[in-house]
Prior knowledge:
This protein is α/β, with parallel strands linked by helices. It contains 17 helices and 24 strands. The chain has a 9-stranded mixed beta sheet with strand order 2-1-10-9-11-12-13-14-15, with helices on both faces. Strands 4-3-5-6 form a 4-stranded parallel beta sheet, with helices on both faces. Helix 2 runs antiparallel to helix 3, helix 5 crosses helix 6 and helix 7 packs across helix 9. The longest helix is centred in the N-terminal third of the chain and has 17 residues.
Amino acid sequence: MLTYSSQRTPLESTPLIPEAFAARYRELGYWVEETIPDFLLSACRSHADRQGLVALAHSLPGKDGKPGQVRWTYGELARYATAAARRLSEAGVGPGDRVLLQLPNTAEYLVYLLGIFWAGALPVFCLPQHRQKELAHFARRTDAAAHVFSTATGGADFAALYETYAGELVGEGLVPPVVVDVAEPLEPAEQPLEAPVAVVRTGESDRPSEQVAFLQLSGGTTGVSKLIPRTHAAYLYSVRESARICGLTEDTRMLVVLPAAHNFTMSSPGILGAFHAGASLVFAADPSPQTAFSLIEAEQVTFAALVPPLAQAWIASAERRAPNLASLSTVQVGGAKLLPAVAARIQPVLGAHLQQVFGMAEGLVNYTRAGDPQETVLTTQGTPISPDDEIRVVDDYDRDVSEGQSGHLLTRGPYTIRGYYREDRANRDGFTEDGFYRTGDIVKVHPGGHIEVTGRAKDQINRNGEKIAVDEIEDLALTHPGIHDAVALGIPDKTVGERVALVVVPAPGTSFTNPRRELHDFFTAAGLAAYKIPERVEVYSSLPVTNIGKISRRELREQLLTHLKKQP
Ligand code: OOB
């Protein structure tokens, strides 16, 4: 059923995979006629009596009726999610509406994620760390009907953040989203949802499964995060294949420690992979090794996904404390480059098999496989999910490099997008004319087809697996009246992989007494998420330029690194 019944503007159409490709993906059985809400519903039905989720809840009653840890079957989860869908509908959220979902890894995250899908709406995956600058942008760009957050979790005063950006939107003549505060207790529905969920037409296709299902956030290389329109059929294909490749079964007990909203956590194989297999999810409320280790032992966790800095923290902690991790059989590491030396310590220290994951919210995901030689698992980032994932490695002029050489990775395939949502300009630069996505990653392909990430060509900083566009930081810095010029750079860091550094040239007559502090206050007041705020600020009188007069980031980075080596 395709309907539209909202007060909000319909989703604008987005660049879709052309019919010639789509027909092939259907014929090969990659794309099937199923939507994400129906997939979730049938998973909750087929696994109704299996344990679905162990998590902390801030507003939902635990076993003893007090807020605390919940331990739900898929059936119980479905009853809460049904109630959440009703609450959203009562708040005016209708089929096709966009809903900002901003919750930490608590039971409510999953309840409202399902609730949004079951209300026929499209989640927009915000992070708990996002502040008014990011939230205002997502609300504007998507014309969001609602913003789901909790006033009962720590981290920020979300109600105040909402007031600030909603006021801005009103000032611009826009209608801000309504608030859905999950701190208000939710009574589970008597019966889980019965009927299939209406899907709204968002593109050319008449098939419900080929409409846009949600908007994921891109790490971004230009300006603020772009929105990634993923369709039901294409996404579910990647989920089913990921669950199979990663060997998920009903006996898998998956620890969710990375932010639940990330594409890695969502689908590689992640939360949706667990639904597909009927596995149990164990949500960690904080990412510390202590919390994770005690959950692994108490809940007999078998499977966990980490980013490299967290893998390093687990290794360091496990070496000191010798926790009981006997149940753990697979540790996935992805989101940023894993150094072979760290990779080599995972099995000996954590007692689990390593699986490397190299993926992107835009689509393509690669895994090392169970049968791969040890050396391959330690030194490469795996092979693509699909035999129809097309990989090209090219030079700066889009010419294929010779076999085994490093170059820019371009990709196209059955679950990779052909364009961002409402970003015509970025789409021209970010995709080739024949629809390949320019990943911005430098890779080399080994003779057996394994991809090794050897570098990065995009202006992005990867801090703890969170991607930060240097443009966003620089553009904001340039609005500071005391700053004449600014360049943001990633500097290597043992704890988080890379940290944000900012080199500024002050405007004439300006001097900073404590530049880091002053700029920290400036960025915070501007409503920028804390993880993007420069942790190192250097004041220069001028910036190095190339022979055509452009700022030389490379030279600046070298200067800065030499300087930091001398004076860490
Ligand atoms: C995942 O998705 P995003 O969208 O946050 O970031 C994608 C980018 C990639 O283009 C690459 O630059 C980097 O993150 N990346 C890696 C990597 N995995 C991701 N760089 C080196 N080695 C790796 N293993 O990060 C993501 C999405 C799905 C699954 C896994 C990760």
